[in-house]
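To: structure desk
From: M.T.
Subject: fold request, one chain
Message: Could you run this one when you get a chance? Sequence is below, nothing fancy, just the single chain.
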Amino acid sequence: MLDAPDENDVPQDLVIVTLPGVQHFVAESRRTADLFVSSRLMSELANALITAVPRGGLVLPLTGGPGGEDDPAGVPNRVVAVAPLGEGAALARMMCEAVRGAWRVHDPMNEVTGFPDVQWVSVPPGAGGYAAQWSRAQELLAQRKRSRDFAFAPVPVQRVCTLTGRWPGTREQGPGRRSEYLSKIGRVKRGYRGAERFPSTWSIASAPYRAGIIVAAAGSERLRRAAEDLQEAAEMLQDDVRSDDPRRPVSVSWRGGNLPGMPRGDDPALRWLRSVEGSWCEPATWDPESLRLDHGLPAEPDRDICGLGAAAASDLRRAAERAEVAAPSAYLAVIAQDADRMGESLSRTDLGQALRSWHGGASRALRAAGEFQREAVEVPDHLGRVVYAGGDDLLALAPLAHAMRAARASYDAFRRALAGELPDATASTAVVFFHVSSPLQSAVAAAQELLEKAKAHHRPGLGVAVMRRGGERASWISRWHTASGGVVLEHLETLVESMRGGALSARLAMGLERDRDELSTLNEEWLKMELTRRAVRHGVSDQGAEALLELMRAGHGGAPPVGAALVAQFLSAESTW
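Reply: Done. Structure tokens follow.
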């Protein structure tokens, strides 16, 4: 670990180096493994910035490192350092070269132009000391961000990379890569060691189902045997497609289902279920033609074996239902969180020369925030998986039934970690629910866009959206807290619970959507009475009706909570909490 800087009165240059475009780079992902690799790559590059700073010169962050293969820890993409008087620009250039050197490990032939993009500023000492340097550096960095460097590909572009949407791509061969044209960055992402261990969308969506089976099987021999039958069918399929010809590699993949919060068991079949890719628990996965296409097989696998697999998956579903294990959902959620006005929070110019020392404490608190958030999302009660957690921002995936609780727990973890150094710090949140077959890239981009909209209306803000396979069905933007100090997501969960299992409650949401314009003409008092009347009429409990009113008060402009009702109706129909 690098030491904190020794503070003294010797004039020093202040250097800030950033890696812009991290969120965009991470969003260029078509698979969950792409998300993981994108985060890891950016953490590697950011860590190169940190390690390039001479001992004693690092200001922010004071701790760093990309973590282990199974720990996609986020490293801040902004590094602050001090250098001897007149040597700031040289240090910045050395840090930039360290980043490019780290990337050359993956791109030794320099096939990629314009990446990585590194921006820096260096500010000499002057009147006002470190605090004045910091303020000036923030101004210059904002100006630098408005300047763009354009690097053009040195070869004719016939195809654009299907993963990144930029850079020239070449056609890829192999399982699951039909019609893909990948750039060098795309090939790096797909070939990164350890990427296959990051859970798929199906694995995350099915996690509560598989976890429930593992726990319930301790008291149900039928359920344990059903899991064993599915494992045997999977092993038979693997034997069927195995080839001794090295020119015909077979890639029916079973891995990618393990999550940090999944329960463990001693039974081999249950251990297999814990780690198996979640889609194998779905009968439709065993369709022979789909298997051939999805796994790049030269021919369809044996139809009898596929039939056995589909039957075993169906039997497992029935046995789980008898053991009162909730059926799997085909939906999951992207959770995005971002600290509000963190740049302003770090600009405590009132501290004067003490600002530099305080920055060290703030850095450690932000690092702790990232660790606490990861723990909060990945616990057994939430079964989520963090893509990155840098302290001031987070991206994670969670099962549909646990996503809102995971978002609340992550927010609480952020506040707890910063209570000492930044007691007023808040974070805005976006939760986007999407189907496992929906484009992951679209879901992540939607979460990032919704987060920006939520922050534009309120800080801390909240955005919740539903993306069905045909596109977005509903979205809701509100404050994080209600006027009474409660958490909006708790009221949304109450509304979901009160709407569950009733066709009438579904008609409440549809009626609010149909009459949106007319309801908008009512004043607040009449709107309250009308919402209460409709809620009671459609079978929503008193608690649900009150939750609907709280959502109206917390929403943007006090408008009818149509989006909240539509989101709640979707969750009540899809989830088995």
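Reply (cont.): The chain has 21 helices and twelve strands. Let me know if you need anything else for the meeting.
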